[in-house]
Amino acid sequence: MGRNGCLTLSFAWAALVVLIGCGGSAGPPPPPPLDFSISVFPSSVSIGVGGITTPVTITVNPKNGFTGSVDIKLQGIPQEVTPSPSPSFSLAAGASQAATFNVSVSASAGTSSITVLATRGSISHNGNIGLTLLPPPMVKTYDTGTMLFMETNTAAETTRVGLLKSWGGSITEVSLNGTNYVNSDDPGRQIQTSLWDGDASYAPNWGYNPIEAGDHLFQGSPLLANTLLRDSIYTKTQPIQWAPENFGGGPGNPVLGDAYIEKWISVVPGYNRIFKVHYRITHFGTDAHTEALQELPVAYVNPNIPNFLYYGGRAPWTNGALTPFTPPGECCAHVHTPEQWGAYVDSTNTGLALFTPGQFPHSQVFNAFSTLQLTPLCPTSWGPGTVLEFDTYILAGPVDQSRTAIYALHSQQSAPSPLPPWGALETPTAGDGLAGNASVAGWAWSLSQVVSVTVLVDGNLVASATLGISRPDVTASFPDAPTDTGFQYSLDTTKFPNGTHAIVVKATDVNGKVATFKTAQVTISN
Q1: Per-residue pLDDT tens for 78-97?
Q2: The model's pTM
Q3: Residues facing 4 on adjacent strands
Q4: Of 274, 380, 446, 525, which is least packed with CB atoms within 10 Å of its CB?
Q5: CA-to-CA separations, 204 to 50, 167, 222, in angstroms, rounded
Q6: Domains along the chain?
Q7: What are 44's strand-pairing partners?
Q8: What radius of gyration do the chain's Cα atoms show?
């Protein structure tokens, strides 16, 4: 035994001394090896054959300072299922990739497990995606004489959309297992479209407002044509003015509007509770109606689904918590809907959702007690020959399932919004007196990009306004709007004779969509 109780073993032939238990330090432990993990969310998805799944997010999570890229391979994908991106791709440490699976209509129903194999050199990890392919629903259409119906049937449920022929073919029913969510107490409700004019007055007399269903006297808009195929419904309607008495009509004398409304309704492949409605609105009038918030479409629902839910945060398409909202008893509250949808639901969170991909990220809602309303924010103006085409999706069922489907539909969107810029001419306003140099100013916001704002006086082009002026107040009201939506032009009024003049501005976006803002009738006096 050596000093301090240490045990000393001496081997003369090796001159080796091993000290045991002497409290010596062998130095710091070696650093943990570089590594990573793989995560998959959600871990399982379901889709009907013919559909595209909601995105599955694959993430490489670095450990212990791991850097670089990882090779990803998706293995065990069933036949007739095509992934996007391809089954092999690279993913940097800390990065994520959303993958979807496009299922052919000829695929077989069933459940499978897809392996997500991640490798880097000798390091290998894997995750799994459960994929359930559901059999397609049975779809049928039929005409009862008063209604046009499209119906989907599975082993568990029946979902149906119904159109009332005497009210312009407007949608008066969206039902799940016999429970109808759509209100049709009068022709101003339903799920339908209607046109508005920014220059029209709506008090005390109701101005320009052709309604797809009919007027406030319960006179229905004419259904000009309808076609039922095995899996689709087509209608063509000429909407009538909501207040015919202000356009030379009255009881027994409805007043036709200057537009045609066509729509095509079909079941979204892979889903039995989602109806796609493609609209085409043709304004054939020779006059012009300046920009207003249109009903494209509006949805009025029954009080059996009184609770409004939507996503109102600042990180859309990330499955953030939904926002409950109590609609006010007067029209209308603006809510921030950056995922472009909203839903009315019952106490089990089951009801009706409306998803309009091209809308601005805001919606209007209110509670009329016998009905509740949702209108996506869709501004446009109607000029001679204006044609507007857009899609909306009507979803029935539990809101979490509807949201999952909306995410899948969103992942398929690639076309720009069909809507023109939204905004306003704020100065001058109607009735102003102008002299000398007068400011023509306001704001314009496009879902693409505003490239020009032109100023017209009495229909004649004067100049282009300066763009990119800071308008934080617009962003404060509409969080997704850029901060530089302002425009301004200094108008030399001495170039015009004294008297009344009409000032109009037109905003054009990068896709050539043009909005004509509300007219300012002013008096020049120099």
Answers
A1: 999 999 999 999 999 999 99
A2: 0.85
A3: none
A4: 525
A5: 52, 26, 27
A6: 36-134 (2.60.40.10), 138-411 (2.70.98), 422-524 (2.60.40.650)
A7: 130
A8: 31
